[in-house]
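Researcher: Next entry: D-2-hydroxyacid dehydrogenase (Pseudomonas matsuisoli).
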Amino acid sequence: MHDETLLDRIVGIVGPNGVVREADKSAYESDWRGAYNGVARFVVRPANTAEVSQVVTLCSEAGIAIVPQGGNTGLCGGAVPDDSASQIVLSLTRMNRVRAVDPDNDTITVEAGVILKHLQDLAEEAGRFFPLSLGAEGSCTIGGNLATNAGGTAVLRYGNMRELTLGIEAVLPDGTVWHGLRALRKDNTGYDLKQLFIGAEGTLGVITAAVLRMFPRPKSIATAWVALSETSAAIRLIRRIQSLCGDRLTGFELMSAQSVEFVTRHLPGCKNPLEHAAPWYALIELSDTQTEARLGDLLEEGLAGAFDAGDVQDAVVANSETQVEALWALREGISEAQNHEGPSLKHDISIAVSQIPAFIEKADARLNALLPKVRLVTYGHVGDGNLHYNVSKPVDVTAEAFKEHASAITDAIYEVTASFDGSISAEHGIGIAKREAAKRHKDPIELGIMRALKNTLDPKGLMNPGKML
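Model: Predicted structure:
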């Protein structure tokens, strides 16, 4: 189909405002970091599910590939077209309606283009709480969160998007609409089909809406910044706090000294609240729905026991909202601060919580043997086994020389991860960045099942081709 004919038919579906002008396409053709770039045939922005269905039907009949895109905040290139100028980017950002808010059922039904921060605010207005929290929450969309099975800082208590989702609506590769927006917590009538689409990165269809869980709003929060001498102390501290506080332990973030040093060096206003530096730090948060939950006392009790056991070197408990924000800024600023240190390699792996110390010891040794004095920026949601194991170049190594080591470094990290039966992607997905590594490290039987599902639902291979598989 000629471009002019195709464009006329698309405009007939979505209207002139539903197609991005040629001069404005670039924002949709690259990821936010500029790491992945492509050329889209057209960028189409449907306003509702019916328009998505019609566009997908048209593309299916014409044999045109589609790249679904949300806020385009991903880290693996999963929402970027290739450079063939043959693929259509289907941006869901205009689909930002809230379809229903049901506080009595603790659910909210929203379209895929709703921004995560807006959803958090809507839940708060309803007197409830939506727990997914990410660094990109001001610009990422619910559709993208679902497509990548997003996690964030509160997975330890609330789970990731798989656990937060009750139902979805999706447009299948042939344009058929699956109306799966059921707000049910129990539905034992067969396969849980929504889970096929969550985490599928748009390769099986286009998620257009979802029913999401809300929770009672926390009214008490206690936050502490803790200095640790070793990673094994962090694992013991998690268990101590959990034994004392149960599911009131909302977050437990681990950060290496290098991570924190980058933040305090490069981000204005960020300061380590402890007098002496430590090899490792933990950021601990408790929350409760009771106003007088005495969480601070519980946290101090847990830390006191850890002091006596020799697991904690020093600690500070925040006593104001301003102090809480300052502590979280140290954690949330790591990725940005690392960018100031030149080229870096970012990895998002997960392993069993109990194996984290052994993994770090083994991976650190491998990388220092490959590239002496490499700077390791290790941090993450250690309470659920998710580490961002990032690598910055040595100070005395040029960017070009560092890039020559990139493949060997990444291979080494993934090999160590595999040796612990871990995953090379905990929450960022596969996209383009990890596609080849997934072929090497994922079980062949699992890959075969994934390909069989892909071929069944998308026999023409038009949904986000080249991603994940």
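Model: Note for the record: The first strand starts at residue 42 and ends at 44.
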